[in-house]
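task queued by scheduler; priority normal; single chain, no ligands, no partner chains; default sampling; output format set to structure tokens
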Amino acid sequence: MRDTSVDAPPVIDWGVATLARAGETESGDLHLVKRVGRGTLVAAVDGLGHGAEAAAAARAAVAALDRYAEESLPPLVRRCHEALAGSRGVVMSLAYVGGVQPSLTWLGVGNVEGVVLYAARNARRARTSLVTRGGIVGGAALPELRTDEVPVAPGDLLIFATDGIRPHNNSPTRSSPGMARARMMRWCWSRATRGAGQAGHEQSGAERVSR
């Protein structure tokens, strides 16, 4: 359970872009960005397959994340696993940004990529990548759930990308036009901004995804 005893200013700016697969009216890629305690929960969820059944599994996962958001990340994933019993399941990556000290705690099951890009020019390395665990949330059994914590600072960038986004021109936020047309995708980011207000936006369409 997270400490919610002290109110604090929101710590991120965020945005999302999505594009359904050609011929489909629904995307199985969904997200949740929710203020929790002294920080913010960020999640990217990808329902297995595509179309209505994938979207239904993703919605069930996001509903469980929203309902139990005050729990820490491993129990939260287990809640989703229980809620998705009998469905085709999802893969997901989660992060909790904020807390008493500027930090990011994250966890991934499946192939939703996560990366933190450091803004400081003198940072020892330019980025840190999330090590995800193989498996399916809602499948036969969950893998061992272990979180990792990384320090963050104002201006750092967190990116979550489903398998519809592929690195292009050395940028993890760019995708090839062919992938943009062929696959469902959703990406979201959070920027650690000490004392800044939380803002968000969503946009659908290939022009936003393939920037």
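post-processing summary
- The chain has one domain: 12-202.
- DSSP finds four helices and eleven strands in the chain.
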